[in-house]
Automatic annotation (TrEMBL):
Residues 196-216 are annotated as: Disordered. InterPro entries: Fcf2/DNTTIP2 (IPR039883), Fcf2_C (IPR014810). GO terms for biological process: RNA processing. One of its GO terms (molecular function) is transferase activity. Residues 200-216 have a biased composition (Basic residues). Residues 92-189 form the Fcf2 pre-rRNA processing C-terminal domain. It is found in: Nucleus, Nucleolus. Keywords: Nucleus, Transferase. Transmembrane segments: none annotated. Coiled coil: none annotated. This is Deoxynucleotidyltransferase terminal-interacting protein 2. One of its GO terms (cellular component) is nucleolus. The keyword 4Fe-4S does not apply.
């Protein structure tokens, strides 16, 4: 009985080994399929694409290549350092940090030039105010750095110090011409200067005649 039991056990073991050998190629095939399916997204199957799809794909690749051309690497940034002249020009665009980076204007219109000239003559325009003596108006040059701002009045000053909209002008010259007092004062000063020049002219003419008569 013992021999029969051992023989039957051996047969059972052999059958189990055979069945495992038959199942192992199936498992291998499944693992290979899983690996191949994981690699499928990275493979370009151009053979199955139509002509329209291929054209779209080429356009996308060209667009990506042109986009990558504009991207600068760290090596490009380090290699291209600005020259001394470029740094000087960049520095001259503003007056500096002490003046809060006031910029140099690119273009100056005639109205702005006129307003700057009137600022130089502010001592003459208002006789009741005394300003610090500036540069001679005959030699006055336009400043390199300046900015023009707009005064924004608060809501609390609506009735106390608000300028009516009709009186607001775009330039200094328009404001002066709109003010009657300033125009009257300027006319009076002009007439005084003209009369003094005429008197001096007559005196000089008489002195010149006297000198001529003496020479004769």
């Amino acid at each position: 009985m013992k021999g029969l039991a051992e023989a039957s056990l051996d047969e059972l073991f052999q059958q189990a080994i055979q069945s495992l050998d038959q199942e192992s190629p199936l498992v291998k095939d499944e693992s290979e399929q899983i690996q191949s399916s994981s690699l499928l997204p990275s493979i370009k199957l151009e053979s199955g694409l139509s002509a329209k799809d291929k054209k779209k794909q080429s356009e996308v690749t060209d667009l990506a290549a042109s986009h990558n051309k504009g991207i600068k690497t760290a090596r490009d940034l380090v290699a291209k350092k600005p020259s001394l002249n470029e740094r000087r020009k960049e520095k001259e665009k503003t007056i500096g940090s002490k003046w809060f980076g006031m910029k140099r204007p690119d273009h100056i219109s005639d109205n702005v030039k006129r307003d700057l000239h009137l600022l130089k003559l502010r001592n003459v325009l208002d006789p009741k105010r005394f300003y610090k003596k500036g540069v001679d108006h005959k030699r006055a040059e336009i400043p390199k750095y300046f900015e023009i701002g707009t005064i924004v009045q608060g809501n609390a000053e609506f009735y106390s110090s608000r300028i009516p909209r009709k009186q607001v002008k775009s330039t200094f010259a328009e404001e002066i011409l709109a003010s009657r007092d300033s125009v009257k004062y300027l006319k009076r000063r002009f007439n005084e200067i003209q009369t003094s020049n005429q008197k001096n002219g007559r005196k000089n003419y008489k002195n010149a005649q006297k000198l001529r008569n003496k020479k004769k």
